[in-house]
Amino acid sequence: MVLVVICALLYSGKHMEMDRMVVMTTQAAGKLLGLAPDSQVARGISRIAESMWPPAVAEKEETARRPDLDRARLPWFTHIETEETTVHRLNPTTLQLEKTTERAEYLVNPVGYLQTVLIKMLETLEIAAWGTLLSVLFSVPLAYFAARNYTPNRVCYALARGFISLLRSAPELIVALFLVLAYGFGPIAGILALSLHAAGFLGKFYAEDIENADRKPQEALEAIGAGKWRTLWYGVVPQVLPQYVAYTLYILDRNVRMATVIGLVGAGGIGQELKGRFDMFQYDHVATILIVVFLVVVLLDQFSARTRARLI
Amino acid sequence: MIEFQNVSKIWPDGTAALFDVSLFVPKGQFCVLLGPSGAGKSTLLRAVNGLTTLSAGRVLIDGIELTPASAPSLRRRVGMIHQHCNLASRMSVAMNTLCGVLPDLPAWRSLLRWFPAADRERACELLARVGLDAKHLFRRAGDLSGGQQQRVGIARAFMLDPDVILADEPVASLDPRISHDIMSLIREVAKQRERSILCSLHQVNHAREFADRIVALRDGRVVFDDVPEVFTDAIAKRLYGPAGPMMNAASNPLHDPTATNANSALKLAA
């Protein structure tokens, strides 16, 4: 048995070029320690790192491209800079190269790009929030039908379970790809993609919580003839609510991270911005985006940890 | 009043929990069921509100037979006090008590958890009656002590002013002093309203003190049915004693179940 596993690993390792990975990583480590002369990986990383630093924060725009600019009332944080550049230009009449000085006026916003990124990040958070809200709305009825002890009949149960599996098995990115085709670029596709996947996840966990809830209060309500949904509402929901909130917070957290990713396929938010900058090789802008995403995820972690601690 | 007519219950695995039990509990009677674990006490109780479906026989409450069709309306006339209180531990004491009126509450009020003022007042009154004053109202039920939880359970059972109270080992997990309090509380509240009580117990001393009548079960059969005064220590010893030729519920009952309640003549001599 162990032999079979080892053989499989060896075969797959060859197939997956694990040998090359080891060699390249060793080379990079050697370069880092000054032992190896050159390393492809180290070169690649250093080139990206160089172009990423410093992160782009400012935004510069020629005033000529903003004909509607009101010079008396500039937008927030902006000022106007003039730059003189010397250029060599061919004079068409004399056919001589002439040195001319050109003056260009720029509208400079020292935190302009940061603003753009933050606005995009807000959009991403909105996508995540709506995705979470919709997934909760989808998954609550789904959980009712998928809970063995409350489902009206076996057919409903099988259908609900099957639907949940289907939702869970489709990755957000693929769903988003299709939804972008259906709804066009923008947040709608992102929101729907996130909520469909999360509804599968939440539906499964909500349903299992209903099934595993303490039987005793339910029995007490059944005994007096309270009926099915009242038993659920008074005997089950109060008991499982803290768990529900915990799952939902996890989904919110996950949705924020996924919302940045699904932007890559054009489903709105910061991912779309990231992909654009990446494709234009503007790695300094990419750096700003990554830092903002990192900070937001850390903050959100803190927030959900605190909310959870207070509720349970 | 509760009437069991030739009630039998056979579990799917073939074991008989109840075997041809006939019993009549008149209005206002405090009837205690005794018997070793597995004798069928809980099954008999749960047959009254249909939590257990019977294999044979009929159960009548105030002359109405319990059927799937009549179950919803009959259940609301039967209050139940559970061994483990069966409160929703994360809900408040007030909310748990108010749960007692749910069968009568309109759907929209149930959904919004908006109970009529009359019900809320009644819940407060009942909680005060069972010894829980206003400062406990909004505590979580799970934070109360075992005795206090059972008091909430009793208040809940009386919310709809049921005709019949079922108590399934209501003091099984409580200490002797508190269980004495709880038993006298159940008896008092029920006597005040002239309600029949069917109560299963493990404590023979409580049965002797509080019951109007003791019914003993062994292996799903009624083996004793009489006033507490004639339930002697010898009978108790044999009831809980090892099964054997002496204690064969079918052939040698402790007390002839066909004898009427008034007939206190004991068949059991040795």
Name a few traits of the molecule.
heterodimer; A: 3-stranded antiparallel β-sheet; 69% helix; extended; B: 270 residues; alpha/beta; 9 helices; globular
Task: Give a structural overview.
The complex is a heterodimer of chains A (312) and B (270). Chain A is mostly helical and 312 residues long. The two termini of chain A are 45 Å apart. The longest helix of chain A is centred in the middle third of the chain and has 35 residues, at 112-146. Chain A contains 11 helices and 3 strands; from the N terminus they run αααβββαααααααα. Chain B is an alpha/beta fold and 270 residues long. Chain B has a 6-stranded mixed β-sheet, sandwiched between helices. Chain B has a 4-stranded antiparallel β-sheet with strand order 2-1-4-5, with helices on one face. The longest helix of chain B is centred in the last third of the chain and has 18 residues, at 176-193. At the A-B interface, helix 8 and helix 9 of A face helix 2 and strand 6 of B.
Multimerization status? heterodimer
Query: How much strand of chain B?
Result: 15-25%
Average pLDDT value of chain A?
87
The number of strands of chain B is 10
SSE sequence of chain A, one letter per element: HHHEEEHHHHHHHH
Helix run count of chain B: 9
Tell me roughly what share of residues is in helical segments of chain B.
Answer: 25-40%
Continuous helix count of chain A: 11
Q: Indicate the overall shape of chain B.
A: globular
User: Class by helix and strand content of chain B?
Assistant: alpha/beta
Strand order of the largest sheet of chain B: 6-7-8-3-9-10
Overall number of strands of chain A: 3
Helix content of chain A: 55-70%
Shape of chain A: extended
